[in-house]
Structure prediction request, 290 residues.
Amino acid sequence: MNIRKVIIPVAGWGTRSLPATKNIPKEMLPVYNKPAVQYVVEEAINSGINDVIFITNRDKSSIEDHFDYNLQLEAVLERAGKQEQLALIRQVAEMANCISIRQKKQLGLGHAVLCAKDVVRADDGFAVMVGDDLLFGMNPGIQQLINVAASERLPVIGVMEVPQERVNRYGIISGEEVSPGIYRVHKLVEKPKVNEAPSRLAIIGRYVLTPEIFGHLEKIQPGHGGEIQLTDALQCQADGKGLLAVKIRGMRFDTGDWAEYLTANIYFALQEEELRYDLIRHLKPLLPWD
Ligand code: UTP
Prediction:
């Protein structure tokens, strides 16, 4: 399976992040010095993907603009001799080949993926990465899935273990561990009750799928929350030719959750040698047990 394209759905309303997201897409909220979605695109690029397909809506053009040249700003930086900043913004414009597709009604993540059908259906496989889920580790998260999809020739979804009391926020899988950290998926349940979840393995926003998923997405009815759920189409995939899940190694932040969003900011700032000690100095007096 040769994965060259990624679908990044960014058309949701971001209601958990209001009022910040009233006019700014959730995916454009900065995490340290980059918009959240840039980390997702970088993860894709670092995994050998070149084509990024954004599923957008009418208010998300700032995402496309971010990955394009800003010639006026470039001229200003050039005149000011700010070569470092100039290189930085040019590099963002050049990092990926971007395609945008409008999701004209926000009918759910499954529907967003279906919007890209015509662009990826000729490929033997493609990635889907949710635009507000950030993953960090030694190996890019989506690369870990691509490796398994290539060797097993099956679609693969990313999972991570979550605490029992948080299972009701995620799609949860049950399955059989076929090799360490790799599961053959039996059941997928969208946001189960805490005491009814089949496991603590939560689906996070990384998938490697095949065009077969579109047939399932076209057949399923609106599910949880009245939306076309990708999870329901994945259940059809699991019941049919099969579906694997890979326990992703790394750290994950959902930027739609304020605690995780703020933690991600601190995490990235702490990676910067120059900022680290200043940040700690500012944070220390704020801690009640200091
Ligand atoms: P979320 O449910 O996390 O995002 O969907 P949301 O709907 O924007 O946020 P809240 O819950 O209202 O705060 C996961 C991803 O799927 C995209 C979202 O943009 C997000 O990146 N999505 C969701 C779509 O592209 N289209 C949809 O119809 C729904």
